[in-house]
Each structure stands twice: as C-alpha cells, then as structure tokens.
C-alpha cells in the first residue's frame, strides 16, 4: 500500500490562518457589496465540517471494502511514482467534475450536495460546510480503481482536490491573469457556481481545473455580482436540518406522488422536475429560476442547458460547489 500523507489534516492550520486573515480583512476593509461573514452562519458551516469528519469515517468502512474488492479483482496496477501521481490527480479531477455535475442534476444526489450550497454567504468557512451523507460520491471513482489505481492513491487525490478548493471560496480575490482563469478553477469561477441567479445556476463544476467545464459546455464567466444561496433559502442554522432538509422534501414528494413513475422522477430526475400538468398551490417566496414553479424550501434549480434547480420540491425548490 502506498504511504501518502493526509493532505486535508496537514492543511487544517492553513485553513484556520486563512479564515482569520479573511475575517480581519473584512473588519479593516469592509465591502458593503460583499456577502461577508455572519457569526451564526460561520458557526453552522464549521459545525457541518466537523460533523462531516465523523460521518465520513463511518461511510469509509463500506466504501473501502468495495474499493478493496474491485482493486483485488482487477489485473491492472498503476504504481505511485513521481510521474504517475500528476496523471492520477488529472484523472481524479475529471471524475470529480462528473460527480459534482451529477450531484446537481439528480435530485437524490443533490440532497447530499445541497448542504454545501445552503449558505447565503461566501467565505472560507463556506468551504467547510460539507455534507454528512457522502455515500453517493464513491461510485464515480470506481473507474480509477478498476484501472489499477490504489484506493489510498484515490483518497490522496480526492484530499488534494478538496484542499485546493478551499481557497476559491472567497470574495476577497478578484479575477486572476487570463492564463490562470482559462485553466484553473478560481474564486471568480467558483463564485458563479455558488450563485442563485438563473444564468449562473449549475455552472462551473470543476474542482482544480475549469477546462472540463469549457470542454463539456457548463462554463460561464463571472459578469455580475453573484447572489449566494439557494433559489429558495432554508433560513436555518440548525445543522441537522441543514444536513437533511432535502431528503425530507423528497420523502414528502414521494409520499404525495400519484404514480410510480412520478415517485421515480421525484428521486432520480432533476431537483426542479415536476410531472406534466403539475400545479403547485404553494408558490415559493423567491425563486432564482423565473417561470419554474413548484420549488421547495431550500431548493435550487438543476443543470440543464438552461438550468433551473430545486433543493426541495413540492414544498421546496432549489447546488453548487470541492
């Protein structure tokens, strides 16, 4: 087994220092247009991050078992060398793009990822607002295991990707020089990803590289100041509700569905999906997707050509952006 460092653990001191620096910068140089910090919101984000460490340790047991079984069965082996590691990082970033995109366009996956998009602020603590139900992520990396990449190497690459994405959660960094903006995921690109405006919804899914979005048609540049959060925000700092509100909305919609096809659609289609002829008598207070009815609380529209996403449905509509 390759001996690779836990890059997330080693990066914690840097996370703390950068967060403090960002907080002080808002105190010394306020920006009235920026979302900035709010104590309860920041505390919720940190609490969600700490909780994710506990739950991820639990989900890790069955996931490692599956990865180990696949790795044992495949005849392929990719050694961890100085020149193979960058290729592994590139492959992991590619599969991360599809995992991230999938978690925006399939509602049961969005129920996990909506946690990260539930803050109406955008700062370094937002990066720590992680879900507690990441059991939906691991299948996207099975191709790497099947091709002979050791599970520990996949874990290392995933950690490196997560660490990179910490610094893009800020409004204190403007646009970088064009070569960087063209290739890398930057704060400007990620602000778009966290915005709730219709033109920004379900865009810029890249982790380290933004080239995947350019290649697969999901890239949008930052042209107007983003409004963060969901198309209908959940207005709570309760970590348990933040973690589970979309699952609860799915359960309500499935229970109220009139057919098995509708039940399947409520779970596996986009967060903003409604069956033909559906009439929502509870119009949402605010929606970032004009003309998209039936959006539940805590919801955000889905990634389509002109996306409209929902985090809850019949009673809540809605996604993101690691």
How far apart the termini lie comes to 26 Å
Q: Radius of gyration from the CA trace?
A: 19 Å
Contiguous low-pLDDT stretches (5 residues minimum) are 283-298, 301-322
| Coarse shape | globular
Task: Report the structural category.
Answer: mainly alpha
Mean pLDDT, nearest integer?
88
Largest sheet data:
none
Number of helices: 12
Strand content: under 5%
Order of helices and strands: HHHHHHHHHHHH
The helix content is 40-55%
Number of strands: 0
Present the secondary structure layout:
Elements: H1 7-28, H2 39-73, H3 84-105, H4 107-117, H5 124-127, H6 142-146, H7 151-166, H8 178-183, H9 187-193, H10 211-216, H11 239-256, H12 260-268
Helix pairs in contact: 1-7, 3-4, 3-7, 4-11, 11-12
Short description:
The chain has helices at residues 7-28, 39-73, 84-105, 107-117, 124-127, 142-146, 151-166, 178-183, 187-193, 211-216, 239-256, 260-268.
Features:
322 residues; mainly alpha; 0% strand; globular; disordered C terminus
Structure overview:
The protein is globular. The chain is mostly helical. Helix content is 50%, strand content 0%. The longest helix has 35 residues, at 39-73. It has helices at 7-28, 39-73, 84-105, 107-117, 124-127, 142-146, 151-166, 178-183, 187-193, 211-216, 239-256, 260-268. The chain contains twelve helices and no strands. It has a domain at 7-173. Helix 3 (84-105) packs across helix 4, helix 3 (84-105) crosses helix 7 (151-166) and helix 11 runs antiparallel to helix 12 (260-268).
